[in-house]
């Protein structure tokens, strides 16, 4: 019997989808925590904030210029995505200044999760399929994305 083949992400879209999956897992984990799991919630939020901010910067520097240049209505798509990123940054900063004991902490995290899940669905169901039809070196772009992420962290 053959051993299962592990898929190694090789394209920029593969890497972004992995980030998206991890973000959704984080949001689900946070939502499943009990009301009294304050320390765990704070730890999850801090890690998510680091990962998400790194992802946002990498997307804006690697992916968005390509979308603007190569996709129909690309500049409008990028503008909408930048607004969503700015809203996410605002919520992350707000959470960073809050105590997990704050009654609005969970609600603010939930709003961030809702915003990012909408953003993820839009990218994965609309933008990525369009971008995959553009003649680009997606493997080289994956390397560039990883370089940008390393510079951010």
Automatic annotation (TrEMBL):
Residues 12-131 form the Hemerythrin-like domain. This is Hemerythrin domain-containing protein.
